[in-house]
Amino acid sequence: MNWDDARFFLALARCGTLRKAAGELNVDQATVGRRITALEDSLGSKLFVRTPKAFSLSALGEALLTHVIEMENAVSAINRKAIHGDESPSGNVVITTTDTLAEAFVIPAIKMLRQQYPEITVSLLTAVNVYDISYRNADLAIRGVRPEEDTLVVKRLATIEMGLYATQDYLDRKGMPVKGTQLQGHDLLMFPRDAVPRHWANFCGESLTSPNVVMQSNSQLLLRSATLQGLGIGLLSSFLADKSPQLIRLFPESKDWVDIWLVLHPDLQRAAKVRAVIHVLEQVFEGVNRQELLP
C-alpha cells in the first residue's frame, strides 16, 4: 500500500461516508469509491463493511489502521522538513489573486494553513493582474494569465473549465441561442477587452464579430451576479456557476479552459512561510486537477 492509496483509506476510516471523505480529500464521491474498490482488489480482501448509511472497518481494516496512521505521521514529517527544514515558519504572507479564486480556493487553503502553521498570517488582495511581484509588493500571485516576465518563478496550479450560462428568465425573453450564429441578438456579459482579449474574438467556441456586450466587469463574481439577474449570457467558471441551480449551461459540449498560475519572486522560493503557503495551495488546487482526469 502506497501513501496515495493509504490516504483514501484513512479518510474514509475517519469520516465514515464517501461524501465526508470526498470533502476532506477535495475530490468527488465517485473517486473515493473507485479508489477504495481498487485498493481492496489489490489486497484481495475487503477493508470496509458497507451499510446503507456508513462505512465501517473490516477486521483487516482495523488491523491496518495503526500502520496507516504511522505512515501518515511519517509523510507529515517529511513534508515539514521539505517545506521549511529546521526553520519554524511564521510571519505574514501577502497573496494577490482574483475574487473568484480567492473565494473558491485561496480561503480554503488559508483554513488549512491556520491548522498546520498557526504562526503564519495572510494578507489577501484581489486584482486581475499580477500585483507587482517584481518589486515585492506581494509575495505570491495566483492568476489566470501566465506572466511574460522571465525573472519570476511560475508554476501551473490547475486548469479550470469555463462555459456559457444564462437563466431561464433570460432565455424566455431572448430565446435559446443557436450554435454557430455568433450569439447574434443576445446580450453578453464579459471581461473588459484589455483584460481578456481572446474572449472578444472567441466566446467559448462562438466567433464574435460585433458582440452586443451590455456589461463589462473585471470581477467574475459580479459577472455571475449579473448572469443570475438575467442581464445576459456569461462565460463563467464551471466550479462557480454549477453551484447555482438558476443558471443553465448553454452548449455543454463547448468549453473554454484557463490555466491557473502561481507566481512568486525567486528570492522568496526558500522562505519557510512562503513554502508553507505554496504547499497548502497545491493541495487545494490538486483536487481540481484530479477531477479533470475523471472520465
From TrEMBL:
It comes from the Bacteria. GO terms for molecular function: DNA-binding transcription factor activity; sequence-specific DNA binding. GO terms for biological process: DNA-templated transcription. Gene3D superfamilies: 3.40.190.290, Winged helix-like DNA-binding domain superfamily/Winged helix DNA-binding domain. PROSITE patterns: HTH_LYSR. InterPro entries: LysR-type_TF_proteobact-type, LysR_HTH_N, LysR_subst-bd, WH-like_DNA-bd_sf, WH_DNA-bd_sf. Keywords: DNA-binding, Transcription, Transcription regulation. Residues 1-58 form the HTH lysR-type domain. Belongs to the LysR transcriptional regulatory family. PANTHER family: HTH-TYPE TRANSCRIPTIONAL REGULATOR (PTHR30537), TRANSCRIPTIONAL REGULATORY PROTEIN (PTHR30537:SF3). This is LysR family transcriptional regulator. It comes from Rouxiella badensis.
